[in-house]
Design goal:
The complex is a heterodimer of chains A (about 120) and B (about 110).
Chain A (H helix, E strand, L loop, with lengths): L4 E3 L2 E4 L5 E6 L6 E7 L5 E8 L2 E4 L8 E4 L6 E5 L8 E8 L9 E2 L3 E5 L1
Parallel strand pairs in A: 2-11
Antiparallel strand pairs in A: 1-3, 3-8, 4-5, 4-9, 5-6, 7-8, 9-10, 9-11
Chain B lengths: L2 E3 L4 E5 L4 E3 L2 E3 L5 E7 L5 E7 L5 E3 L5 E5 L4 E6 L8 E8 L7 E3 L3 E6 L1
Parallel strand pairs in B: 2-12
Antiparallel strand pairs in B: 1-4, 3-9, 5-6, 5-10, 7-8, 8-9, 10-11, 10-12
Classes of the chains: A mainly beta (about 120), B mainly beta (about 110).
Chain lengths: ~120, ~110
């Protein structure tokens, strides 16, 4: 079974440019989460999809960040325009719907460097 | 508000030595507690979790953790470290098992000497 995959693994862009990160969850997982770890600090929640709907986006830092999940499958996280403080590692995770023994599966992350 | 501290940013141990990684949390009720590990180039992998019941929890790869309510701690232990354990370890707390409610600690990087 394929795990959660994220593309690209690394991205280096200049301030003001646009970057789009992609996450492919495990097939059949309705829950999809985005997290971010900035400057070696703690990993912080960004948002949560249930299928194609945004369930909770309380962690999104500002309106330069736009997340979508087309058809409830893969998700993209766009940063436009990117700022220096957006540098960090962006993690995606997915899980099956339901409360009992729900387990999060994480991707390996996208390392974003904004110069 | 929930918070998690991991006092040790970086720990170095010799292979075969015992290991304890510290985690303290702040939470108003009984928390859900987790330890995750990230090896180089890999995603976060769940080592173990505590929801209720026995306060000593066994996980994968020979790890265990003990929930101590009186100390608000959930320290991770392993009796004998292997070189492959070199990674970054994250403690997390949540009010439930839903990922949007997780609060992660800053992580502890473990180096293992041959």
């Amino acid at each position: 079974e394929a795990g959660v995959t994220q593309f690209p693994s690394h991205s280096v862009i200049e301030k003001g440019q646009t970057v789009t990160l992609r996450c492919d969850p495990i097939s059949g997982h309705d829950n999809l989460y985005w997290y971010r770890r900035v400057m070696g600090k703690e990993i912080k929640f960004l948002l949560h999809f249930v299928k194609e709907s945004k369930q909770d986006e309380s962690g999104m830092p500002n309106n330069r960040f736009l997340a979508e999940r087309t058809g409830g499958t893969y998700s993209t996280l766009k940063v436009q325009p990117a700022e220096l403080e957006d540098s960090g590692v962006y993690f995606c995770a997915s899980s099956q719907q339901g409360r009992t023994n729900e387990k999060l599966f994480f991707g390996s992350g996208t390392q974003l460097s904004v110069l | 508000a929930q918070s998690v501290t991991q006092p040790d940013i970086h720990i170095t141990v010799s292979e075969g030595a015992s290991l304890e990684l510290r985690c303290n949390y702040s939470y108003g009720a009984t928390p859900y507690l987790f330890w995750y590990v990230q090896s180089p180039g890999q995603g976060l992998q769940l080592l173990l979790k505590y929801f209720s019941g026995d306060t000593l929890v066994q996980g994968i790869k020979g790890f265990e953790a003990e929930f101590k309510r009186s100390q608000s701690s959930f320290n991770l232990r392993k009796p004998s470290v292997h070189w492959s354990d070199a990674a970054e370890y994250f403690c997390a707390v949540g009010r439930d098992n839903y990922g949007q409610n997780f609060v992660f600690g800053p992580g502890t990087r473990l180096s293992v000497l041959p």
